[in-house]
Amino acid sequence: MIIDARVRPPFKSLTQVLAPEPGARPAVKHSPLVSGYERTPSMAKKSFELFIAEMDSAGIEKGILVGRQAGHRVIDNDDIAELRDRYPDRFPVALAGINGADTDAGIREIERTLGEMHFSGIAVDPGWWVPARYVDDPVNEPLYRRCAELGGVLYLTCSLMQGPDISYAEPWRIQRVANAFPTLPIVVVHGAFPYTQEMIGVMIANAPLGNLWVIPDFFQFIPGFPGAREWVDAANHFLGDRILYASSYPVRPLAQSLAEFQRFSYIPEVLDQVLSRNAATLFGIR
Predict the structure, then answer these.
(1) Are 195 and 170 in contact (CB under 8 A)?
(2) What's the rounded Cα separation, in Å, for the pair 51 and 254?
(3) Which CATH architecture has domain 3-19+34-283?
(4) How confident is the model at residue 18, as a pLDDT?
(5) Structure-derived torsion over alpha carbons of residues 235, 247, 161, 215, reported in degrees to the nearest 10
(6) What pLDDT sits at residue 16?
(7) How far apart, in whole angstroms, are the C-alpha atoms of residue 80 and residue 119?
(8) pTM of the predicted structure, to 2 decimals
């Protein structure tokens, strides 16, 4: 079984997950994140049916639905719940996007989605909130605390993209959150790139608590990205139970992402952990 731990299929408002900022200047050149592949039919047509066909073709049995509410990028959590409930075998886990710019409203949405709608956790992008906020800002603490109280998992997106500058991806800030909320399972999306060595160090330091996981996703498997093989070495020797595979569709295609990931020299047992067992254990997927 292969579990893609972060997908946003083309379904209703989920198509807005990568919405461009209104009035933004055109890019001078394509980002490396969207280079090196051709848009698949599901991406080009924004077709959910084609997305399912591409999952089947790639051999991906299950996907974890991940929301986003950050600035102009807003996915309606009700759409995520609808998709999960329509296809529970395909999408057994859903994480609600939370906009923490208004802390009280964010807490109410956590209580609605985790308490009433049986979401498995929340996904936050503090560097994209308006105004941008560091992950360890004390203002965020009530959000993290309520998620922990309700038994949720926290997806914390941290990379060079999530914020006005790369300081918003500094791993020591993530470590502070993990230390402050030891009962809260935290999954670091994008692996805090470009701070790969520092994030691995934080993961090692976190071993006694054991509440941190990481999704390096396309910052590892796009050919040529620095630090990619460091995740492989770490997994093969001491972090094999702490790394999850994800394509992060629609940033990258399903099949090509998996093929690019599988080219690495993982120990077979570790590869099975990363592709399936770690996510299954974390979320209770059978």
Answers:
(1) yes
(2) 9
(3) Alpha-Beta Barrel (3.20)
(4) 78
(5) -30
(6) 86
(7) 9
(8) 0.96
**Predicted local distance difference test score (pLDDT) of residue 28:** 65
> Which residue type sits at 261?
F
Contacts of 88 (CB under 8 A, 6+ apart): none
pLDDT for position 106: 97
CA dihedral 142, 126, 201, 186 (to 10 degrees): 50
Question: In which band, very low, low, confident or very high, does the pLDDT at 24 lie, cut at 50, 70 and 90?
Answer: low
Cα–Cα distance, 59 to 69 (Å, whole number): 30
Residue with tokens 């710019």: 101
Residue 149 exposure: Cα atoms within 13 Å on the Cβ side:
10
Cis amide leading into 9 (omega within 30): no
Q: Is the pLDDT of residue 102 over 80?
A: yes
Model pLDDT for residues 193-211, shown as the tens digit of each residue: 999 999 999 999 999 999 9
Give all strands of the β-sheet with 212-215 in edge-to-edge order.
3-7, 62-66, 93-97, 121-124, 153-157, 186-189, 212-215
3 state SS for 87-100? CCCCCCEEEEECCC
